[in-house]
Amino acid sequence: MKSLKQTLILLILLLSAAALAACGDAQELYGKIIEITDRDITIETGTFQASSEEETGSFVSDGGTASYSLSSNIDTQHLSENMIVKLTLQNETVTAVEASGDEGGDFSDETDPYSETVDLSAALTIDEGEQAVSDKEYDSSKADVSTILLKNKASLTLDNCTLTKSGDVSGSSDETSSRGLNAVFAASGQSTATLKASTLTSSGNGANAIFSADKGTKVTASDFKIYTTGDSSRGLFASLGGSISASGGDITTKGDLSAPVSAGQDQAGIQVRNTTVSSEGSSSPCLYSAGSITASKLSGSASGSQIAVINGAGSAVLKSCLLQGAGKAGLTLFDTGSKTPREGASSLRVTDSKLTTTSDGPMFYVTNTQGTITLKNTALYYSSGVLVKAAGNRSGRWGTPGKNGGDLTLKGTHQTLTGDITCDAISTVALKLSQNSLFQGAVNPQNTAKSVSVSLDKTSRWEVTGDSYLSKITNKNTKCKNIRSNGHTIYYDAGQKSNAWLKGKTLSLPGGGKLTPAPTKEP
Asked: What is the Cα–Cα distance from 448 to 316, expressed in whole angstroms?
């Protein structure tokens, strides 16, 4: 009997060891989704590298692919192609999937202060009064100490001066520097500054070049040069209602979270003209706006981020600009959700410009915000074939997953638009074409959108490149002769009042296709 008990105990130990060994076989790996169904997933394999605490990081492909079965407990509803994921594998079966990013993952997630105050200091502080300085050099190498600081309605004119800043900001470099600490040149308290033919250089983290804060504070810069290498070190940065007017400048930033031109919340505003910009860091778009930016004849590139990022109720107006970006989308409109999610309406207006992205993502990505993009006589260069993606995100920082879709109105005036418009079940897109505009693409080709609509005036045209599913369609050409179908079908919702003009009929379209009521979806 004793021998039998020993044998049973040994058998139990062996089975336990085998079970533990099986648990130990679990492994984790990162990948970019190529294809996903309810039971299988195919990924592009690689590594995921987080650049900083503020970033979602970046996926680096190793050129390989792999396919796995999905366990029955995995919900694939919020997973989609091109999403970066972390897979947990057990015996070649995926037992858990964690989203690690999305097309807009390298957002400039900048924040503005509202309650906390800091003590500002500088190598040269001008407190009240007026001064004029020319042909001088100023330097600060101490942490949290700016090179020049204006406050209390002071006034300063700098002509042909050189300002240098080294030393990092203490604490969170992004949040603290947003309050004006550690800048090369900082103006606050309704001060007024004029910088002429001056050079500003910083090498520390959180060392913005020209900073303007508080309503009534105005900084004017002309024929200037800016060069920053640290993280959270923007070129022109207006915050808390401050304003900057700049022209004839050359701005270069090297660090992460270092947009050459950045406007914060609370009605901060920047006007920039005849200026060249260049950035290399992640989350360092040419333009970042949570406030208001107007740019004319601005040229340059962001090699590690989008062309522009609009946050919340921010706006940007681009006129005669020549800009290039990378990142995971061409331009991104989003809301951080740091306050009330989707509280504002993002706005982007582009006229007579050329925008290029090397991204393999959409030209425009919209999430967790209500936005309007207006384009006029502007050339768009991108390779993904997706003009717009309006969709929710699973970042955990921009709204609640499942409730953080994007709502976009895209207006084209004397504009050519090429590429598909895609939309998920919690997002909406309205395309409005006028004044001899042309759209070449498909709208909602996967029939996944919450709502999509297309509106054309008599002078505008749609060249259909794939079957499209619309909630609403309006057309001043009631016979729809301005829609060339190329053999494709456009489905519309006959139950929508705005589609009453079609009377539920099917119209034959030029090119062999048709405009027809959508089949009724099964409950």
From this structure: 30
What H or E segment, with its residue span, contains residue 21? helix 2-24
Residue 501 contacts residue 476 (beta carbons within 8 Å):
no
For 77-96, how does the pLDDT look when each residue is reduced to its tens digit (9 = 90+)?
555 555 677 888 887 788 88
Is the whole model's pTM more than 0.85, yes or no? Answer: no
Question: Which of 320, 274, 324 lies closest to 302, judged by CA?
Answer: 324
* Residue 236 contacts residue 261 (beta carbons within 8 Å): yes
Judge whether 202 and 184 are in contact, CB under 8 Å: yes
Q: Which two tokens stand for residue 511?
A: 């090119």
Cβ pair 319, 349 in contact under 8 A: no
Asked whether the CA dihedral 278, 282, 286, 290 is positive or negative, the reply is: negative
From residue 94, alpha-carbon distances to 21, 30, 243 in Å are 18, 12, 52
Question: Given the structure tokens 């962001």, which residue do they identify?
Answer: 302
Model pLDDT for residues 214-251, shown as the tens digit of each residue? 999 999 999 999 999 999 999 999 999 999 999 999 99
Are 199 and 236 in contact by the 8 Å Cβ rule? The answer is no
Q: Give the side-chain half-sphere CA count within 13 A for 459.
A: 9
Is 66 in contact with 127 (CB distance < 8 Å)?
no
Token pair of 418, please? 């090429």
Surface-to-core class of residue 88, CB atoms within 10 Å of its CB (0-12 exposed, 13-18 middle, 19+ buried): middle
- Expressed in percent and rounded to 5, the helix, strand and coil fractions of the chain are 5, 45, 45
Closest CA to 126 of 157, 94, 98, 86: 157
Query: Which element (helix H / strand E) includes 185?
Result: strand 185-187
Residues in the chain, overall count: 523
